[in-house]
Fold this protein.
Amino acid sequence: MTSEGLFGTNDYTVVENYHSLPPSGNYVSCLFGLSGEQVTGKAWFDDVTVTPFDSIAAVDPGGELTYVDTDVVPDTTYYYSVRTVDTRGLYSESVIKKIDLRLPKSVTLASPRDGIRVLEAKLTWEQVMGVDGYYVKVQKSGVKVWEADNVTETSVIVPAEQLEEDSTYTWTVQYIKNGVYSDVSEEWSFIFTKWPTVYDYISDMTETYWQNGWGNGNKDLSNDGNPILIAGVQYDKGLGMHAPSEVHYALNGNYDYFMAFIGHDDEANGGNGVIFKVVVDDDTVYESRSMRWGEPAELIKIQVTGADTLRLLMDHNGDMGWDHADWADAILYNLESQGVESQTAILPTTTELIGNYPNPFNPATTIVFQLHKPAKVELEVFNILGQKVTTLVNKRYDAGVYRIKWDATSYDGGRLTSGVYLYRLKAGKITKVRKLLLLR
């Protein structure tokens, strides 16, 4: 479709260089009609004084304008033309824009981004014009745990009581039109997380090492001394840094988990993003993707049970410019009343790794061991290649029988795949190893 075919013949002189238009030039817009139809109804004219041409506004060369058409029919394709006219009555060539409002095969999911942790399971998707509603389904390991039908908005909040902490859930959406459900959307996942009730902000603690890439960096403020702000969300606590940066903390085995929101601070728009790394003792247990300006913060949760040191690093991803980023609301905490550990009143006569139940298991299993005397205990899980995937216990226990629940997640909270895993108990000079089978 060409401008000549749309406008027919006219005597106007075409101005092809948009930047040559004087500042007083106006944008005019015309809706040509439905795709594949004779242009009727919303007529087309060369005379800008005749409706439905819309004089949007005056704009300086290089400026931008927005046009909103509220008179559209769903499930329809439209073509829009935009051209400029100057004070001499000279027109530019038309720019043709195709807008396809036909129903898609499925819904496009929007947030939360696939695979991230969330404190609130607010699921959002893109609007499909002209539909009657939406059907949302949430599953865990292929089993439906929650659903919502005939949703009229483009978001829902899954009730927290329907979700288990540190569990991975998948969700899909379908639109509904005249009682017919669309194809199922792409399947995304999220990890439900609870914020602890007792914790220590790392910005209130004394670090053992502090290095910042530009300036000094700040506690509870951004790198430049502003409020910590990531994608428009303000955080009162945290570390405001500039990559490359590195901060160390001495844990001395006193904490079980580190949590923080990570992201590029709003005060610096540029660069190719910042990469966050978490090192526990000498192991790099977490490395983020490149976090760019304007992207929402992501919540991370890292197990640090029994660890002596925590190192928080930022990498500038190849260019040291505009790399202002934050460890927002960063905390350390211990396990509370989460039911992960219990002790019986009967004292055993030997130290044993009794086993785990159920086995095979999905999604969680309980590992049982007993101690005949107090000992420093390490309980670790390895894959079949001998690579450690997580540490469940690393502290001193009194004599007794203990039950440790494991939900088949790794150091960084990632969901492990099906397979055979080994779990090892070290208590004093005693070492015991057993196998367990995870079936997803």
